[in-house]
Each structure stands twice: as structure tokens, then as C-alpha cells.
């Protein structure tokens, strides 16, 4: 990678031009010192980027077009005109798959430039968390979703509101959106916006949604859960910090045995023992759930936590459970978490023993045997 142009020491140009941003200069120096080293990521955080810096970033992206996959500018103060120039060229960087501008001062014109670039289809992951998109920004992102291969979009705390969520839902109606992960936590969405999402959810390929820190009523939870039942691709549901009550917990519990959910996070809500018991009964019947987080639900007590363990201690897929900072005592919370984690190794051992017994039985009878490859791998690992 060629070195960045600099003015001679003592020249008028050198005196007039500010030095490159320190974080950016370090990336460039590492590249120049070791030409064989190809950076895969440009990551700058909590810093001011001047036009000269943005030009250097463009040069890095152009010269590292085969290797740089991530552009992450977090909490940066950026010159708008230069940012627009950078964003308008994103589609030309062949390796670039992830763009993050979280907590940056990104204005409407820059969002439009980003939306146009995203429509070229190269970028797969977009993070605009804590950027004040508003309805207009949501409209731009919805247009980008229709015409691109974006798979993950993080719009937490972007103030898109109900109208912005409705714009995204209209994009889902086309049935051509590739999006798999959508985060709209804390985006000031209410019942109207989530109703629009629920209507279109079965038309999507979404695998995970984060709806936390929004105003979500029990009726809205019912709508969303009904939609999830009709969305076979859905694997993750996160609704933390939304003041969910036991009625909402029971609604969510009702779909667990009927869906392929793997991960459920209901942290920082108003769920009590009643809600946890309903979840425990449902998880007992679920064949897929691997992760449950119930942290910071202060009304959940040791009694319900013990009931939960009795219901899940023979569960075949559960890997992680967390009750931290809830009403469950720290010792019991840690004990249940450790026991659930240990279930994984116990299940593996049971499969190995079953495989070994099957092999011995068939060999003794002079028969051949046919075991799944995964079971054979477990047996090999167990036997060392």
C-alpha cells in the first residue's frame, strides 16, 4: 500500500494543513511499515475527523479494496461534506461488507448518500445506532433494503417512531428483502409501528429482532408473537427494558413449543414468578431454545427459580440461563447458570455412551453399523 502524500517539512502547505487524526495515522503507519500486512478494518472512535482525514480513509479503502471489510466510525465528529463524499463511494469498495456510523453526527444529506451507496448491494451490515434518523432517514433505509443485499441493520435509538417503522414494513411487503437481523430498540416505536411489523413479519427472512426499550403493550406482544409463529426463520427475540408484565411473558411462553426460537432475552422488565413459571413450563416442551436471559427482573424470587430448574434440568438444547440482578439470590442464580451450562457436556456424554453401546451391540452380532457423522465425532473426542 502506497504511503499517504505529505508536504515537505517547513513548507507553507505543511503549516496550513492540520495533522492527520492520531488513530488514523497509526493505521497508515502500520500499513507502511509492513507492506504485506493488509488491514481488514478501519475503526475510529470518539474523535474529530477533518476533510484531510476523510480523504485518507478514502485512499485506504481504495488501496485496500481487496482486504478492508469493515468501516467503523463510532461517536466521531465528522465534516458533513467530506462524509458525503466518502459515503457516496462505498459501493465501489469491493470487499467492504460492514459500515458503522453509530453515535456520529450524520445529517440528512449524508444519510441520503449512504442510502444510494447501499443500493449497490455490496454492504451486508449497517449500524446507525444512536443516529437521529427520524422518519426521513427510515424512508431512505427502507428504500435501501428493497434494492440491496443488506442482512443486518441496527437502528437502535434512531427516533424513527411509528411512521419510520411503517416505512420499513412497507419494504418487507415486497418479499424481496434479504434482511436477517433487525434492531429497533429504543427507536420510539409504539403500537402502530409494531402492528405494521407484525403484519409483514411472515413475508421476511428475519432470524432475529430486537424490540426492547420501546412502548410495548400486552396486546402488541400478542400481535408480534402471532406473527413469529408464522415466521419459520425466526431464531432470536429480544424485548428488554420494555416494562413487560406476566401477561406478556405468558404470551411469549405460549409460542416457544411451536417455533424454532433459539434465543430469548427479556431483561429489565416487570416479570414476576408467575411469568417465569409460565416460561419454565413452555421451555420444558420446547425443542430448540438455547439461551434465556431474565436479568434485572426484581420481582422474580428464589422459589420460581428453583421451579424453573426442576422443569429444565432434563432439557435437551438449553445452554445458558441468566438471572443476574433479579430477585433471585446471587448464589442460586450462579448455581442454576452453572448447572444449565453443565447440561451440554452431560448431553454429549450421553450421546457418546449411546453410540458406544450401539457399536458394541452391532459388532457383537456381526453386523455393520451406520451412525451420524456428528455422533462419530463425539465418540472420537470422548475416546481421545
**Low-confidence segments:** 1-17
As a whole number of angstroms, the C-alpha radius of gyration is 26 Å
The helix/strand order is HHEEHEEHEHEHEHEHEHEHEHEHEHH
Q: What shape does the CA trace take?
A: globular
How would you describe this structure to a colleague?
With 384 residues, this protein is of the alpha/beta class. The model is unreliable at 1-17 (pLDDT under 50). Helix 3 (51-63) packs parallel to helix 4 (80-87), helix 4 packs parallel to helix 5 (108-118) and helix 8 (191-200) runs parallel beside helix 9. Helix content is 46%, strand content 11%. It is built from 14 helices and 13 strands. Strand 10, helix 10 and strand 11 form a beta-alpha-beta unit. It has a domain at 42-118.
Keywords:
disordered N terminus; alpha/beta; 14 helices; 384 residues; single chain; globular; eleven-stranded parallel beta sheet; two-stranded parallel sheet
Give a short summary of the structure.
The chain is an alpha/beta fold. The chain has helices spanning 12-16, 22-33, 51-63, 80-87, 108-118, 134-146, 161-172, 191-200, 218-229, 246-255, 273-285, 302-312, 330-364, 373-383, and strands spanning 41-45, 48-49, 70-74, 77-78, 98-100, 125-127, 152-154, 181-183, 208-210, 236-238, 263-265, 291-293, 320-322.
Topology of helices and strands:
Blueprint: H1 12-16, H2 22-33, E1 41-45, E2 48-49, H3 51-63, E3 70-74, E4 77-78, H4 80-87, E5 98-100, H5 108-118, E6 125-127, H6 134-146, E7 152-154, H7 161-172, E8 181-183, H8 191-200, E9 208-210, H9 218-229, E10 236-238, H10 246-255, E11 263-265, H11 273-285, E12 291-293, H12 302-312, E13 320-322, H13 330-364, H14 373-383
Parallel strand pairs: 1-3, 2-4, 3-5, 5-6, 6-7, 7-8, 8-9, 9-10, 10-11, 11-12, 12-13
Helix pairs in contact: 3-4, 4-5, 5-6, 6-7, 7-8, 8-9, 9-10, 10-11, 11-12, 12-13, 13-14
Amino acid at each position: 500500500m502506497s504511503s499517504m502524500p505529505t508536504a515537505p517539512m517547513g513548507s507553507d502547505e505543511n503549516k496550513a494543513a492540520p495533522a492527520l487524526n492520531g488513530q488514523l495515522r497509526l493505521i497508515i503507519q502500520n500499513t507502511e511499515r509492513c507492506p504485506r500486512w493488509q488491514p481488514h478494518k478501519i475503526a475510529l472512535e470518539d474523535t474529530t475527523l477533518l476533510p484531510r482525514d476523510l480523504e485518507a480513509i478514502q485512499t485506504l479503502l481504495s488501496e485496500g479494496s481487496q482486504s478492508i471489510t469493515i468501516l467503523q466510525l463510532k461517536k466521531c465528529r465528522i465534516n458533513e461534506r467530506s462524509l458525503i463524499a466518502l459515503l457516496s463511494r462505498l459501493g465501489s469498495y469491493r470487499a467492504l461488507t460492514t459500515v458503522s456510523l453509530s453515535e456520529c453526527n450524520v445529517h440528512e444529506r449524508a444519510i441520503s448518500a449512504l442510502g444510494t451507496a447501499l443500493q449497490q448491494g455490496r454492504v451486508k451490515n449497517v449500524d446507525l445506532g444512536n443516529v437521529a434518523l427520524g422518519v426521513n432517514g427510515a424512508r431512505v433505509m427502507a428504500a435501501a433494503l428493497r434494492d440491496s443485499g443488506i442482512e443486518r441493520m441496527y437502528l437502535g435509538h434512531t427516533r424513527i417512531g411509528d411512521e419510520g417503522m411503517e416505512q420499513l414494513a412497507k419494504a418487507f411487503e415486497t418479499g424481496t428483502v434479504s434482511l436477517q437481523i433487525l434492531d429497533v430498540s429504543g427507536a420510539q416505536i409504539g403500537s402502530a409501528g409494531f402492528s405494521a411489523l407484525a403484519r409483514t413479519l411472515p413475508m421476511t427472512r428475519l432470524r432475529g429482532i430486537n424490540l426492547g426499550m420501546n412502548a410495548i403493550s400486552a396486546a402488541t406482544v400478542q400481535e408480534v408473537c402471532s406473527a413469529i409463529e408464522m415466521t419459520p426463520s425466526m431464531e432470536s427475540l429480544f424485548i428488554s427494558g420494555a416494562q413487560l408484565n406476566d401477561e406478556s411473558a405468558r404470551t411469549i411462553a405460549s409460542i416457544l413449543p411451536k417455533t424454532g426460537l433459539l434465543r430469548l432475552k427479556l431483561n429489565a422488565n416487570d416479570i414476576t414468578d408467575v411469568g417465569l413459571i409460565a416460561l419454565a413450563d413452555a421451555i420444558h416442551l420446547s425443542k430448540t431454545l438455547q439461551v434465556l436471559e431474565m436479568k434485572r427482573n426484581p420481582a422474580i424470587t428464589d422459589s420460581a427459580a428453583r421451579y424453573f430448574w426442576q422443569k429444565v434440568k432434563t432439557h435437551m438444547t438449553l445452554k445458558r440461563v441468566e438471572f443476574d440482578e433479579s430477585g433471585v439470590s446471587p448464589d442460586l442464580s450462579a448455581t442454576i447458570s452453572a448447572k444449565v451450562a453443565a447440561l451440554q457436556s452431560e448431553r454429549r456424554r450421553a450421546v457418546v455412551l449411546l453410540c458406544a453401546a450401539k457399536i458394541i451391540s452391532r459388532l457383537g452380532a456381526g453386523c455393520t453399523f451406520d451412525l451420524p457423522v456428528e455422533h462419530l465425532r463425539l465418540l472420537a473426542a470422548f475416546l481421545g
